């Protein structure tokens, strides 16, 4: 059928307005399509970021748990190391600074004229107090102590003579 328009041509839209209207419809449709594509892409990107954030948070919690466990293990190892160092120091100290080193020789050098009244043993040190009735016996006793190579220093702390009791002495002996 033929397209018959009974309206006068002056009342209808002009051809330029019709072309503009058709261009605007095409432009609007294109803008709507572009908006829908970018909206969908943005939604997918936000969903991906949200999933990634949850993965990173879960990984962060695992790392925190691991770090806490490692910190406790490190603290335990540090305490064990400290205890071992203290044990080594104590066992090494007792081997190196035995205050009774050579004390058997001192007791062997004690004659009936020499009597020890007090013996004190400290870390690397030995203190002796005693008395002797004869100077000759005292000389032999001191010679046994002074010739002992285990002693670093021998100091005469106190020395006195009493005609009734004889010689009184105090020695401080430091071992090597």
Please characterize this protein's 3D structure.
This protein is α+β, with helices and mostly antiparallel strands and 176 residues long. It has two domains: 14-96; 103-175, Gyrase A, domain 2 (2-Layer Sandwich). 57% of the residues lie in helices and 22% in strands. It contains three helices and four strands; from the N terminus they run ααββαββ. The protein has helices at residues 15-96, 103-109, 135-146, and strands at 114-122, 125-132, 151-162, 166-175. The protein has a four-stranded antiparallel β-sheet. A hairpin with a 3-residue loop joins strand 3 (151-162) and strand 4 (166-175). The longest helix has 82 residues, at 15-96. 6% of the residues are buried. The model has no long low-confidence stretch (mean pLDDT 85).
Layout of helices and strands:
Blueprint lengths: L14 H82 L6 H7 L4 E9 L2 E8 L2 H12 L4 E12 L3 E10 L1
Antiparallel strand pairs: 1-2, 2-4, 3-4
């Amino acid at each position: 059928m033929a397209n018959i328009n009974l309206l006068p041509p002056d009342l209808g839209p002009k051809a330029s307005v019709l072309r503009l209207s058709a261009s605007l419809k095409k432009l609007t449709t294109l803008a709507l399509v572009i908006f829908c594509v970018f909206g969908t892409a943005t939604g997918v990107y936000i969903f991906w970021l949200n999933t990634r954030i949850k993965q990173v948070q879960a990984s962060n919690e695992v790392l925190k748990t691991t770090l806490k466990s490692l910190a406790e293990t490190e603290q335990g190892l540090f305490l064990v190391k400290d205890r071992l160092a203290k044990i080594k120091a104590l066992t090494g100290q007792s081997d190196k600074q035995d205050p009774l080193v050579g004390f058997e020789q001192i007791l062997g050098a004690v004659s009936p004229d020499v009597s020890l009244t007090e013996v004190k043993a400290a870390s690397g040190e030995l203190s002796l107090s005693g008395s002797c009735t004869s100077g000759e016996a005292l000389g032999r006793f001191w010679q046994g102590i002074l010739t002992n190579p285990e002693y670093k220093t021998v100091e005469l702390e106190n020395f006195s003579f009493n005609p009734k009791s004889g010689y009184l002495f105090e020695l401080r002996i430091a071992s090597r």
